[in-house]
Amino acid sequence: MAQVLVITPVKNSIETTLETAKAIQESTVSVEHKIFNDFSTAQTKAELDRQLPVIGYKVLHLEEVTDTPSPNYKLVLQMAQKEAIEKGLPLLVVESDVTVEKDTIAKMLDFYLQNQDVGLVGAITVGYDKKVNFPYLKFKDVKDEVIDTKRSLSFCCTLFSKEFLAAYDFMALDDAKDWYDTFISKKAIELGFKNYVLMTAPVLHKPHGSRPWKQLKYKNPLKYYFLKFWKGLDKI
């Protein structure tokens, strides 16, 4: 029986998505993994369907339930929260540019079960060189194994406790935003929960692999900021 509901929002990036899915299925704990395909290309959709029985995830093509253009992160979070509550499971977001270790989810679950007042638990992100990378560079010099933080957690690889899911209804999330990492991190603290980052559960993060247009920040910053501000992409 599954011990956690794992979700992965996907917008193309099929290679990294399949790497993410394979790693999740190799976890040492039983999980239910659901991919939310957010209006990817026909080729990505077809490959997700083709690999489904091979790897073992479930997939929902959001075009079947909404006509709202991507990003549909709010809808994904709302649907996932409802399903996790119905199944009595904590919820784990693993984004499609993240590769977990075999024991990552086990470590996160164990920490959650052994500590009270947990709202969110994030796994520290590292690069191929094993050094802490974006978005957790703010913690790169921390030597503690566990960080109790009031700073924003990224949803790269983050577990939502059952208690927090029951305390805050994602239906109240702001329609004007695209991403909710900062808001939900603050909401958990506001409701009396504690948020943690586990330095002992590193996950490989390939920054912006799930949103390739954001690579422009390094390659073509003028175009990046045009898309971010003029086009209104990436509202947080």
Task: Please provide a written account of the structure.
- This protein is α/β, with parallel strands linked by helices and 236 residues long.
- Helix content is 35%, strand content 22%.
- Strands 1, 2, 3, 4, 5, 6, 7, 8 and 9 form a 9-stranded mixed β-sheet that branches.
- Helix 1 (14-25) runs parallel beside helix 2.
- The relative contact order is 0.17.
Q: How much helicity do the residues have?
A: 25-40%
Structural class: alpha/beta
The main sheet comes to:
9 strands, mixed
Distance between the termini: 35 Å
Give the overall average pLDDT: 92
Total beta strand runs: 9
Give the low-pLDDT segments.
none
Q: How many separate helices?
A: 8
Keywords:
8 helices; alpha/beta; globular; 9-stranded mixed β-sheet; 236 residues
Element layout with pairings:
Blueprint lengths: L3 E7 L3 H12 L5 E7 L4 H14 L2 E4 L11 H15 L3 E4 L3 E2 L4 H11 L3 E9 L19 E4 L7 E4 L1 H6 L13 H10 L3 E12 L10 H4 L1 H10 L6
Parallel strand pairs: 1-2, 1-4, 2-3, 6-9
Antiparallel strand pairs: 4-8, 5-9, 6-8, 7-9
Short characterization:
The protein is α/β, with parallel strands linked by helices.
